[in-house]
Amino acid sequence: MPVSTAQHGQPQWRLRTTRAQWLQYLAWLAGVSLFLLCWKLISDNTMWVFVEDAGRQGADLISRMTPPEWSYASQLWKPMWDTLNIATLGTALGIMLAFPVAFLAARNTSPHPLVRSAALVIIVSSRSINSLIWAMLLVTILGPGVLAGIIAIALRSIGFVGKLLYEAIEEIHPTPVEAISATGASRLQVMSYGVLPQVMPAFAGISVYRWDINIRESTVLGLVGAGGIGLQLNASINTLAWDHVSVIFLMIFATVLVSEWVSAKVRHAII
Amino acid sequence: MSTMSSKQRQHLAQQGTWRRLPLIASPGLRWGLVLALAVYLVLAFASVEVNWARVAEGASRGMNFLSAFMQPDFVSRWDDILAGLLESLTMTVTSTVLGIALAVPVGLGAARNIAPLPIYVICRSIIAVSRTFQEVIIAILFVVMFGFGPFAGMITLAFATIGFMAKLLAEDIEDLDWRQVEAVRATGAGWWQTLNHAVQPQVMPRLIGLSMYRLDINFRESAVIGIVGAGGIGATLNTSISRYEYDTSAAILLMIIAIVLLSEYSSSHVRRWTQ
After folding, report:
1. Domain-wise residue ranges, chain A
2. CA torsion angle B252 B258 B264 B265 (round to 10)
3. Closest Cα in chain B, distance from residue A7 (Å)
4. Sign of CA dihedral B148, B154, B156, B159
5. Looking at the predicted structure, is the pLDDT value of residue A271 above 70?
6. Domain segments of chain B: what residues?
7. CA distance A252 to A257
8. pLDDT in tens, B157-216
9. Are A126 and A69 in contact (CB under 8 A)?
């Protein structure tokens, strides 16, 4: 407890020691200066005339977006179905690939430290690169279409599912594993009867959670040509058809809300 | 639970015909899900059109990309890469700070146990809107409003940060230890004092951890919103890919991965230090 003594010998309670106080002050000073420096760099690169104009532009945008042209919605069912397929098939492919990677990356199931670091590298690189970037690359390689979107989503999901799953595997209870190995089970049998049942609920929860995120991400993949509703969005924005854009936005909003609800329900049922 | 009693299961085990418990206990639901999944997969695969000729054509380009990854070119576009990275990093810092500063009041308002109902509803709808739309979609709107450049990107990331941080902060406040709040209230503390001495100490470690995590996410997102004109390394990356300069794209991707690794490593240190 940091205490200082007053002049007449009475102890006084203080929140921090002098050292902690100074450290905190310095940390704040460094943080605020960094923020101001970054702010200055951004402000130098900004056309402030445009920013001052933003309110008017925003109002103009809203007036162009309303009323939404509802009849356009009938053309959106096919792209929306494509978007759902990109998200779902991409998640399925992603978790299939992530499952073995997670077992190789978990400290207690990995066969060798070298294999473990290789698996961790896969997880980190997949996590660092956004699915839109993957899609951009894959569109130049595979050509525009749903397939590029599916693979992009899958590649991005490996890292997410792999990371959460390997953390779940590292947190399992060792007792069932020991019990199974005591019966003379082989390595794979221990995995299947000792480890797997313990991580299965977590795995199902993580997968559904990632599916929900992927629905959100797959709505924009079309911007770079990877299929789905993003293609329509891109086309509408390029032709300045803002009343179509607002229909697409509402559709995305509804789909994401529904998928979030489904995923929350399923995760609630699992846990 | 299982349709079989544990006694029956034990009996079966003694006969050597034991089977493990299925993940989904009710057989109707289990087979129903399998059937639904099968029907969906058939429908989905039927509607996915793949131009295999185009895929085969692109295979050589894929090989080009892989070989470029083996020998990334940092040098020839170094100035562009540096400018893009600097812009991304400044965008990340400012947007995270702004976003968190705005997320704290929204998060307080979205916690049902300390906010009155009307404020709760308003704050929850802000969170819902901010979380539903992908950063890229928000960026499109802000680029139209604020013009091209990092300012629009910063606003976008700050807006996305609000939804993320406020939701998690509100959840954290909703399950805090209420006894401490009562203790502080019993001393006659007002609303602000309760917040400062009972709520804040309980949520602070997690708030700092989440902020570090969000810093990380914002950097990763800043690499993509450049595609729609909101500044940052994404614009550079987009240009390099569309010009088929894969060695430069590989260099940019490697630098993104390195920075994310670095920030993940340091954020785990910060988190250990605060908890």
Report:
1. 80-266
2. -170
3. 28
4. negative
5. no
6. 6-47, 77-274
7. 8
8. 999 999 999 999 999 998 888 888 899 889 988 888 888 888 888 888 888 888 888 988
9. no
Residue A83: both structure tokens together: 């978007």
For B230, the closest chain A residue by CA position comes to A46
Give the per-residue pLDDT at B2: 45
* pLDDT at residue B23 is higher than 90: no
Cβ within 8 Å of residue B29, ≥6 positions away:
none
Q: Which of A16, A38, A267 to mutate to test the interface with B (most CBs of B within 10 A)?
A: A38
The answer to whether domain B77-274 has CATH 3.40.50.10230 is no
- The Cα–Cα gap between B3 and B38 comes to 25
Give the pair of three-digit tokens for residue A81: 């179905």
Question: Are A147 and B50 within 8 A, CB to CB?
Answer: yes
Residue with tokens 């959670």: A209
Task: Reply yes or no on whether the pLDDT at B263 is more than 80.
Answer: yes
Q: Which CATH architecture has domain A80-266?
A: Orthogonal Bundle (1.10)
pLDDT at B3: 52
What is the count of residue pairs from A and B with beta carbons less than 8 Å apart? 153
Single-letter residue type at B201: P
> Which residue on chain B is closest to A79 by alpha carbon?
B47
Q: Supply the pLDDT for residue A90.
A: 94
Model ipTM value: 0.81
Q: Is the pLDDT of residue A77 over 50?
A: yes
Residues in chain A: 271
Q: How do residues A232-258 score in pLDDT, each as one tens digit?
A: 998 898 888 888 899 998 999 899 889
Q: Other C-beta atoms within 10 Å of B128: how many?
A: 15
Joined together, the tokens standing for residue B43 give 């429908």
